[in-house]
Amino acid sequence: MNITILGPGAVGSLWACYLQKAGHNVCLWTRNSIPSEQSLSLSANENSSHQFKINDKQALIDCDLLVITVKAWQVESALLPLLPLLSKETILLFMHNGMGAIDNLKEHINHHPILQATTTHGALKENNTNVIHTGYGNTSLGPFNPLGKQCQFIQDVLNHSLPSVDWNPEINIALWKKLAINCAINPLTAIHQCKNGQLEQLDIHQYVVSICSEVHEILQKEGIEWSYSELLSSVNQVIKATSANYSSMNRDCFYQRKTEIDFITGYLLKRAKFHGISAPINQSLYNQIKQFEENTL
Ligand SMILES: NC(=O)c1ccc[n+]([C@@H]2O[C@H](COP(=O)([O-])OP(=O)(O)OC[C@H]3O[C@@H](n4cnc5c(N)ncnc54)[C@H](OP(=O)(O)O)[C@@H]3O)[C@@H](O)[C@H]2O)c1
């Protein structure tokens, strides 16, 4: 397939390398069109070297699949300028943390087949030319609109490149579950500047429990069937499995970068407001991260 990766940071570069390895014709779309080619080496189980064209307009016009791997808050500004160049058959695949990033774009993109994905693979872009596959995971993929429902074959395309990939016709549920876990882990680890494992300490873990309780009430109103004990035990499992890791929000705050809080806790709070529910602990965490962003960016 002709594939363009919009936003070849850590996740985008990882997929670019694996998709090219699998034989696809992959180009990158970055903020800067100079240089016009980019070498990337992938450090993984088997190291490999890759060469990609950058910001090739004709490749974008011809692309069958556009994989959008910018951060949630970058989606709108990255994608809008490219829309006039795309064929209406181009499949848009969004892969970012959080929810709500494409809601405002819907009317501009709904004539494309749209897919959403969430991944637990870990990637680190050490520098402009090296991407490290830091952790193997899996990817869930599913349709955002009716045209997207006809694109289940993309599961095979991705699965042959970087397994495992499952097709989830109700991807929204998977996204909500990921968001719920992120709400419990990301803001706390960012505010306390701690590794995920430190959330197991009793004095912090009581906040994890309270966050989950608020999140669960909102999940119920959204019609997501997930019991409170399932939610809490999933959060605890992720904390254990990633105990030595820093969350992405922790790193964003550490490096004084804008976070994805508006699309994680911020999205949760929007839905809480819609349902007429208050979520004071999540609100307080949201305010603290926004204050931090205001003071540092
Ligand atoms: N890294 C992981 O292990 C991991 C795992 C699971 C999920 N995720 C999620 O995946 C998403 C991407 O994460 P990431 O770690 O790959 O972030 P990242 O390294 O910051 O990648 C984002 C890329 O998008 C580029 N970009 C931003 N605006 C653009 C524009 N207008 N046009 C073209 N390119 C643009 C950025 O370029 P600049 O460098 O010029 O800003 C950067 O290269 C996030 O939602 C993250 O939470 C990440």
Describe the structure.
The chain is an alpha/beta fold and 297 residues long. Helix content is 42%, strand content 20%. The protein has eleven helices and eleven strands. α6 crosses α8 (228-241) and α6 (171-191) crosses α9 (248-254). The mean pLDDT is 97.
Topology:
Elements: E1 2-6, H1 10-21, E2 25-29, E3 37-43, E4 48-54, H2 57-61, E5 65-68, H3 75-79, E6 91-95, H4 106-109, E7 114-119, E8 122-127, E9 130-135, E10 139-143, H5 153-161, E11 165-167, H6 171-191, H7 202-221, H8 228-241, H9 248-254, H10 265-274, H11 280-296
Parallel strand pairs: 1-2, 1-5, 2-4, 3-9, 5-6, 6-7, 10-11
Antiparallel strand pairs: 3-4, 7-10, 8-9
Helix pairs in contact: 1-5, 6-7, 6-8, 6-9, 6-11, 7-8, 10-11
Bound molecules: NADP nicotinamide-adenine-dinucleotide phosphate.
